[in-house]
Design brief:
heterotrimer, A mainly alpha (623), B mainly alpha (68), C mainly alpha (207), B: 68 residues, mainly alpha, C: 207 residues, Four Helix Bundle (Hemerythrin (Met), subunit A), 6 helices, 77% helix, 0% strand
C-alpha cells in the first residue's frame, strides 16, 4: 500500500508535470514566434518539469518541500521507524541503510541489463559481417551498454555499499543530510526510465561519450539521453557532497582521521572527486543540448565553434571518473585484505597518502584521451608524464595490499578471493595502461579493442570485482542472512576465469587494429573474436550463480551472526541487520581498526555504557 | 575592522567594492595592452571575491564558532 | 535544482537526532559551501570555454548597461547583507524591508539582462546582411549561455528570497534561528561572486 502510493504518486505527478512542461514550452515558443512544437525543445522542458513533479510526488513534498513555504512537514524518519517489511524499499525513506540497499538493488538490475547488452554485442561480433542486428541497433546497444555500465561503476559501490557501510563504520546514526541522501537516490529512477526508453525514441548513435559534431547533428534520442545523464550527474554530486560532510563531521568520539578504515578513506576521496568533477560531463552535455535545442554554436566549426572543446570539458570529468570508479574498488580490496589476512594493514599511512595523491593528480591528466584528437604537440609531453605519475600512488596501494598479504594468515573466504582478484586484475590493467599513456604506442592503439580490453581490466577487474567482494563481505550485515559459501566460490572462479579469458584475448585483435564501436571487422580477425565471444558468454553466465545465491540466501539463508568475520571495525559490533539508529549505545573509538594480533592493542571500539547483549568490542581473535 | 559595528563594516566593504568596480571599468577601458588588462581584471576579481566571501558570506564561520 | 539543493539543506534540521543545534548549523554551513564550490566549477568551465573558443576577443556590447546592472547586483548584495545582519540583531522589520529591496534589485537585474539580450548586436545565425563573422556567432553562444545560466541562478535566488520573505512575514525565524534566511542570502552573494568573474570576462576583457 505504502509502496503503491509512493510510486503511483511519483509517476502521477511526474507525468502530469511532464505534460504541463511540454505545454509551457509550446506556449513560450508561440509567444516568441516559433513553431509550437519542437520535439527536443519541448521534451527537455517537459523533462525538467516532470523530474520536479516526480520528486515531489514520491515524498519530497511532504517531508521537505512544505518547509520552504513555512508549512508543517511530516517527520522524514517516520517511514524508517514503521514496520514495513519490503515496502520500505519503495518509499521516500531517509535511513541510509535502506537507501544503500535501494541503490545496490537498482544498480544490480542495471548491471545485469547492461551485461545482457554486452552479450548481444558479442553475439554480433562472433563472426565478421552483419549477422544478427543492424548497424543502427548495434550502435544503440553499444551506447546503452557503455553508459549503463558507467553508471553502475560510478554509483553501485558509492551509492550502495558506501551509503550502507560508511555511517556504520564511522559510528554515525545516519548521513549528514538524510533527506538529500534520499533525494540523490530518487533522482535515479527517472534517469533509468529515460535511458531505457531511448531505443524507442530514436536510438543512440554516439556511444556513451556523445562526441560532437555527431551528437549535435544526429536525429536520435540524444537530447533525452543528455538530460537523463545531467540528472544522474546531479545525483552523483549531491551524493558526493553528503559523503564529504558526513566523514568530516559525523565521526564517533575517538574516530580520528588516522583511525578511519580504508573503505571510508576511499569513499571520502571518491566523494571529493564526484563533487569536483562531475560538473564537467554535465556542462559538456548542456553545451550539446543547447547546440541542439537553442541553436547555439559551441561545436559548429562553420560558425566558429570547436568540437575539441567538448572533448576537453568531457574528459575533465571522465578521466577523474575512472578514479571515482576504481578507488572504491581499492578501498574494499584493502579493507577485506586487512581483515582476512589477520594482521595489521601494511603501510596504512602510505595507502591514505596514495588516495589523496590520486585525488590531486586526477585533475591534470585528462588530455591523454585526446592524443590523436588534434591537440597541440606541446601538450603531449606534460600529459604523458602526469598520467604516468599516477602509477606512483597506485603502486603505494599495491604495496599496502601485498605487504598485508605477505606472511599473513590468509582466510580464503569469498570476499577475500574477490579482493585478491582486484589486485591481480588491476595489475594487468595497469600494465596495459602504460602503453596507452605513451604517445607513440597510443597513436597505434587509440580506438582499438586494446583500449576496450584495458579499461575492462581496470574497471571490471578492479571495481566490479571489488563490488562483489563488498557484496559478499557485507551481505550478512545487510540482510541478516548468510550466503552459500560453495555457490559463492563457484561464482568467483567462474567469473574470474571467464573474465580473464575474455579480456586477455581481447588485446590480440586490438593490437591487430580492430576498431572499437564498429559492428564489423575483417575476416582475418575471425578466430580471435570467436574465442572472445565464447569466453564472454562464459563470463556472462557466471552471474546466474550469483543471482540464484543472492536471492535464495536473502530469502531463506541461515541467520548470520553479528560478526561472522571476527572483524574489528564498527559495523560488525552491532546486530545484523543493525537497528534503525545503528548503535543502541554511542560507540567510542579507542584503537586502530586493523591491529590484529598486536600485543596490548586497544580494541577499536568500546561502548559507553556497555551495551547489553551486543558482542564485545574488538573481536581481534577471529575464527 | 574589529571595533566597528556589523552594519558599518558591511557598508564600508560595499563602498570598497563599488569603487573597485568603477576603477575596474575605467582601467579596462583605458589600458591598451591585452595582457596588462587581463592581469589587472583577474587581480581585481580575486580581491572582490575575497571581500564578498569574507565579509558578506562569512566564510570563516565554517571553522570558527559564531558569536551567539 | 539549485533551489532545492541550496535552500533545501539550508533548512535541514532532522536526522542525526543527537546533533546539537550549533553542530547542525556548522554542518549545514559547510555543506552549503561545498555546494557553492561545486557550482563554481560549472561556472568555471563555461568561463574557461569562453577563452578557449575566443581568446580575449569580444564583440561590441553596451558598456553602460553592463556597468549599471553590475552596480544593481552589488547594491542587492548590500541589501541582502543588511537583511542578514538585521536578523542577527533581532530587527525583523528592517530584515523584511531589506529582503524586499533585494528582491526588487534582483528583478531589476534580471530584466536588465533580458533587455541586454534584446538589443545584442550579435546573434546565433550567420547572415549575409548583418555581415556576421563566425567569431560573432561564437561570442553570441558564450554570451547567451553564460549570462543565461547566471540569470537562471538570479531568478531561482529571487524565488528563494520571496519564500524567505513570506516566511519571515508569517512569523517564522528568530534572532537565534534563521538559517533559512542566512543560507538564501549566502546563495545570493554567491550569485554575485559569479558575476564578479563574468562581468569582466564578457564586457571588459577586450577593453
Amino acid at each position: 500500500m505504502y509502496a503503491a502510493t509512493t510510486i503511483g504518486g511519483g509517476l502521477g505527478t511526474g507525468l502530469l508535470s511532464f505534460y504541463l512542461g511540454i505545454g509551457v514550452a509550446a506556449l513560450l515558443r508561440t509567444m516568441f514566434g516559433y513553431d509550437a512544437w519542437d520535439r527536443d525543445f519541448n521534451a527537455t522542458i517537459g523533462y525538467i518539469f516532470g523530474l520536479v513533479g516526480w520528486l515531489m510526488g514520491v515524498g519530497m513534498w511532504g517531508t521537505w518541500g512544505r518547509e520552504w513555504f513555512g508549512l508543517k512537514i511530516k517527520d522524514p524518519h517516520a517511514n524508517s521507524r514503521k514496520e514495513l517489511g519490503w515496502q520500505r524499499y519503495f518509499m521516500f525513506n531517509v535511513d541510509h541503510k535502506v537507501i544503500g540497499i535501494q541503490y545496490l538493488a537498482t544498480f544490480l538490475v542495471v548491471f545485469m541489463t547492461a551485461g545482457l547488452m554486452a552479450m548481444i554485442i558479442r553475439l554480433e561480433l562472433m563472426g565478421s559481417g552483419q549477422d544478427f542486428i543492424s548497424n543502427k541497433t548495434y550502435n544503440t546497444v553499444l551506447g546503452m551498454h557503455g553508459i549503463m555500465m558507467v553508471a553502475v561503476a560510478v554509483a553501485a559501490v558509492v551509492g550502495g555499499l558506501g551509503n550502507y557501510a560508511v555511517p556504520l563504520m564511522i559510528g554515525a546514526d545516519d548521513m549528514a543530510f538524510p533527506r538529500m541522501n534520499a533525494l540523490s537516490y530518487w533522482l535515479v529512477p527517472p534517469v533509468a526510465v529515460t535511458l531505457l526508453l531511448s531505443p524507442f525514441l530514436g536510438g543512440l548513435e554516439t556511444g556513451w561519450t556523445a562526441y560532437p559534431p555527431l551528437s549535435v547533428l544526429t536525429d536520435s534520442a540524444q537530447t533525452f539521453w543528455n538530460v537523463a545523464i545531467i540528472t544522474f550527474g546531479l545525483s552523483s554530486i549531491l551524493g558526493g557532497l553528503n559523503f564529504v560532510v558526513t566523514v568530516m563531521f559525523m565521526r564517533a568520539p575517538g574516530m580520528t582521521w588516522g583511525r578511519l578504515p580504508m573503505f571510508v578513506w576511499s569513499m571520502f576521496v571518491t566523494a571529493w572527486l564526484a563533487l569536483l568533477y562531475t560538473q564537467g560531463f554535465a556542462v559538456a552535455l548542456i553545451m550539446v543540448t543547447l547546440d541542439r535545442i537553442a541553436g547555439m554554436g559551441f561545436f559548429d566549426a562553420e560558425r566558429g565553434g570547436d568540437p575539441l572543446l567538448y572533448q576537453h570539458v568531457f574528459w575533465f570529468y571522465s578521466h577523474p571518473a575512472v578514479y571515482i570508479m576504481i578507488l572504491p574498488g581499492f578501498g574494499i580490496a584493502l579493507e577485506v585484505i586487512g581483515h582476512f589476512s589477520r594482521k595489521p594493514l601494511f603501510a596504512y599511512r602510505y595507502a591514505v597518502g596514495a588516495f589523496l595523491g590520486i585525488l590531486g593528480l586526477s585533475g591534470v591528466v585528462w588530455a591523454h584521451h585526446m592524443f590523436t584528437a588534434g591537440i597541440p604537440n606541446y601538450l603531449h609531453g606534460p600529459f604523458l608524464v602526469a598520467t604516468e605519475l599516477i602509477s606512483i600512488p597506485t603502486g603505494l596501494i599495491f604495496l599496502s595490499a601485498l605487504g598485508t598479504i605477505w606472511m599473513g594468515k590468509l582466510w580464503l573466504r569469498t570476499p577475500m578471493l574477490f579482493a585478491l582478484a582486484v589486485i591481480f586484475n588491476f595489475a594487468c590493467g595497469g600494465v596495459t595502461g602504460i602503453f596507452l599513456a605513451d604517445v607513440p604506442t597510443d597513436i597505434h592503439l587509440q580506438d582499438t579493442y586494446f583500449v576496450v580490453a584495458h579499461f575492462h581490466y581496470t574497471i571490471v577487474g578492479g571495481e566490479i570485482f571489488g563490488l562483489f567482494a563488498g557484496i559478499y563481505y557485507w551481505f550478512p550485515k545487510m540482510t541478516g542472512k548468510m550466503y552459500n559459501e560453495k555457490l559463492a566460490k563457484l561464482h568467483f572462479w567462474w567469473m574470474f576465469i571467464g573474465f580473464n579469458l575474455t579480456f586477455f584475448i581481447m588485446h590480440w585483435p586490438g593490437i591487430e587494429g580492430m576498431n572499437r564501436r564498429i559492428a564489423d571487422y575483417p575476416e582475418s580477425l575471425q578466430t580471435a573474436n570467436l574465442i572472445v565471444s565464447l569466453s564472454a558468454f562464459l563470463l556472462g553466465s557466471s552471474f546466474i550463480v550469483f543471482i540464484y545465491n543472492f536471492i535464495n540466501s536473502w530469502v531463506r539463508g541461515p541467520a548470520a551472526e553479528a560478526n561472522p568475520w571476527g572483524a574489528r571495525t564498527l559495523e560488525w559490533q552491532t546486530s545484523s541487520p543493525p537497528p534503525v539508529e545503528n548503535f543502541l549505545t554511542p560507540p567510542v573509538i579507542a584503537g586502530h581498526p586493523y591491529d590484529y594480533g598486536v600485543p596490548g592493542a586497544a580494541p577499536h571500539v568500546t561502548f559507553f555504557p556497555p551495551a547489553v547483549g551486543s558482542p564485545a568490542g574488538g573481536g581481534g581473535g577471529g575464527q | 575592522m574589529p571595533t566597528m559595528g556589523a552594519f558599518q563594516k558591511g557598508y564600508l566593504v560595499a563602498v570598497i567594492l563599488a569603487i573597485m568596480t568603477i576603477l575596474e571599468y575605467l582601467f579596462a577601458v583605458g589600458v591598451s595592452s591585452t595582457e596588462v588588462r587581463f592581469a589587472g581584471l583577474a587581480i581585481t576579481a580575486l580581491a572582490k571575491v575575497y571581500f564578498i566571501a569574507y565579509y558578506f558570506m562569512h566564510i570563516y564561520r565554517c571553522w570558527r564558532e559564531e558569536a551567539h | 535544482m539549485a533551489v532545492i539543493a541550496a535552500h533545501g539543506h539550508g533548512v535541514e534540521s532532522h536526522g542525526a537526532s543527537h546533533m546539537s543545534p550549533e553542530k547542525r548549523l556548522r554542518v549545514n554551513r559547510v555543506g552549503l559551501w561545498l555546494f557553492f564550490f561545486s557550482e563554481s566549477i560549472i561556472f568555471g568551465l563555461l568561463f574557461t570555454s569562453r577563452f578557449f573558443l575566443l581568446g580575449t576577443h569580444q564583440e561590441h556590447v553596451d558598456q553602460f548597461l553592463g556597468l549599471v546592472i553590475t552596480i544593481v547586483l552589488l547594491a542587492s548584495s548590500v541589501t541582502a547583507y543588511t537583511a542578514e545582519t538585521a536578523m542577527e540583531k533581532g530587527n525583523r522589520k528592517l530584515a523584511q524591508w531589506a529582503l524586499l529591496g533585494t528582491i526588487l534589485l534582483g528583478v531589476v537585474f534580471a530584466v536588465g539582462v533580458g533587455f541586454e539580450w534584446s538589443v545584442a548586436e550579435f546573434g546565433l545565425k550567420l547572415s549575409e546582411e548583418h555581415h556576421q563573422e563566425p567569431q560573432n556567432v561564437v561570442f553570441g553562444t558564450v554570451f547567451f549561455t553564460m549570462t543565461g545560466l547566471h540569470a537562471a541562478h538570479v531568478v531561482s535566488g529571487v524565488g528563494m528570497l520571496v519564500l524567505a520573505f513570506i516566511m519571515l512575514s508569517r512569523g517564522h525565524f528568530s534572532k537565534e534561528s534563521h538559517w533559512g534566511i542566512s543560507s538564501t542570502i549566502m546563495y545570493w552573494h554567491f550569485v554575485d561572486v559569479v558575476w564578479v568573474f563574468y562581468y569582466p570576462a564578457l564586457y571588459l576583457v577586450a577593453g
